[in-house]
Amino acid sequence: MYRTHTCGALRNEHIDTAVTLSGWVQRSRDLGGMTFVDLRDRYGITQLVFNMETDAKLCETARKLGREFVIQIEGTVIERSSKNKNIPTGDIEIEVSKLSILNEAKTPPFTIEDETDGGDELRMQYRYLDLRRNPVQEKLRLRNKVSLETRKYLDGQDFMDVETPVLIKSTPEGARDFVVPSRMNPNEFYALPQSPQTFKQLLMVSGMDRYYQIVKCFRDEDLRADRQPEFTQIDCEMAFVEQEDVLQTFEGLIQHLFREVRGVELDAQFPRMTYAEAMEKYGSDKPDIRFGMEFNDLTEKAQGNGFVVFDSVDAVLAINAEGCAGYSRKQLDALTNWVKRPQIGARGLVYVKYNDDGTSKSSVDKFYSEEERKAWLDQCGAKPGDLLLLLCGELDKTRKQLNELRLHLGTELGLRDPKIFKPLWVLDFPLLEWDEESKRYHAMHHPFTSPKPEDFALIDTEPGKVRANAYDLAMNGVELGGGSIRIHDKALQSRMFDLLGFTKEEAEAQFGFLMNAFEYGAPPHGGLAFGLDRLVATMGGSESIRDYIAFPKNNSGRDTMIDAPAPIDAEQRKELGL
Fold it and tell me: Cis peptide leading into 565, omega within 30 of 0?
């Protein structure tokens, strides 16, 4: 038996108990007559004590233990004279009577402590060592708990866990596919699924009624903090439902997860906002509503005064930074330089300070009178001590830029508390978006999203104005998940493919199996998929999903630990016809 207890289990009630522990050496302290060793496993840390007076040979062996040596000890639990209130086992220690070195260890390339000296790339290269650190294990414990509670909730709602294929057919919509050559079918390829979309719809046709799967998905796209080439979805579908049924069901899931995992009670009913309203107020389809700073359109009031920067653009938009009139010239210059970065792309930044005496001061005083500036302040609901920040340009582009500035200020002013969680349903997305490069419409979500019934008449005349029966759940500026009521009628699905520029032959080749299934009695159905990685990261108060994935890829899509992707040998290439 390697152990009778874990390194986080022993307490005062175990004093005088003979125990066996195994684990890794966290650190060792030689105090001459006494040597103290912290022994660590996944469950915690226990202090070991070796006494030169009682067993000199054993103490000498203990002095030679290096960091991360794997050892086994036998001994007796005793009361610790100098207690450590920072760890659960801090009232006791083990008086060691026997020590076995199970495996020696090289000195690790970084310290395996809560606060490590290893950089990101080094820790990713030695991820198996990084995973020994408690902060990393805590994140994976959170992920495990979320997965477990998700299964409990969905099982309680009569959802059935059904696996779908990983080797499927490549489709032209969405992100780029990862493709896999088939040895048994030369010059043909599988694709790894971007989602189980068509399969979960087929499960509804099959009569499964309520399906879910915690499933791996794959997208060959450029990476950032909240993207990985392989990611995990909580994928769900329901038959005989309308939008409200779906929203209520998955609102319940998120409430359950926050209650059981974080001990947080979310609102009894999540607020809702249309896509059009979200873009108008926040310039984002996943707005962070933990703080205000809603957009104000000053175009009408700002144009016509000879300020060519404003007069030559489509839109002049402003946000009100409450209590920030005291910003110095240096701070305002820093904000200006921030929005002019290539990632943001603004031409510049105009400010208006609302002074405590009721007057205003701006960077465009030359063009606008005190009365005109006061009209801006009034429209934005500003009070003395506030600061208006204005951007201008093409409407959609300016909204996106002002959204970035709003989030930047929210962070700078401490308004984005990671311990506060504000969910928001965003509804009524456009069904289609026009792509200038390809000169055709693309599905904003995917080709199987149904249009709003009241917009059916616009499909033939003004397809760009058709709203989708689609919904996203945002929280703290992050899109946690989204879904839609699907098309279940073959004729409407064919019309959708026409709008997206598919020929009849292309639609049949790509999606004929689904269209054929619709001819055998497809029920009305809809669903939703949450990004498990994003959900867990948001619950943990982090922006990066990499921290919550055991073996993530870096920003180039590489696994530096196993050095993948990598070339394959000539024989493999020959077998695959490459």
Answer: yes
Q: How far apart are CA 235 and CA 250, in angstroms?
A: 11
Tell me which DSSP letter residue 177 carries: P
Cβ neighbours for 145, distance < 8 A, ≥ 6 positions apart: 260, 261
Transcribe 102-122 into DSSP letters. Answer: EE--PPPSS--SSS----HHH
Name the one residue in this structure whose structure tokens are 């340009």.
Answer: 393
> For residue 197, which amino acid is it?
Q
Tell whether 365 and 334 lie within a shared domain. yes
**What is the pLDDT of the chain when averaged over all its residues?**
95
**What's the rounded Cα separation, in Å, for the pair 160 and 337?**
53
The residue segments making up the domain with residue 38 are: 12-103
Rounded to whole angstroms, how far apart are CA atoms 53 and 459?
A: 89
Q: Give the pLDDT mean for 462-484.
A: 95
Q: How many CB atoms neighbour CB 267 within 10 A?
A: 11
Q: Average pLDDT, stretch 47-55?
A: 95
pTM: 0.93
Locate 87 and state its tokens. 């760890």
Q: Which residues are paired to 40 by β-bridges?
A: 24, 45
Tokens found for residue 455: 């917009």
Which pLDDT score is estimated for 225? 66
d(CA 415, CA 407): 9
Q: Does residue 577 belong to any structural domain of this protein?
A: no
CATH at residue 302: 3.30.1360.30
Q: pLDDT tens digits for 228-276?
A: 999 999 999 999 999 999 999 999 999 999 999 999 999 999 999 999 9
Q: 451 and 403, same structural domain? A: no
pLDDT tens sequence across 382-429: 999 999 999 999 999 999 999 999 999 999 999 999 999 999 999 999
Question: By C-alpha distance, which of 430, 454, 450, 452 is closest to 442?
Answer: 430
What is the number of structural domains in the chain? 3
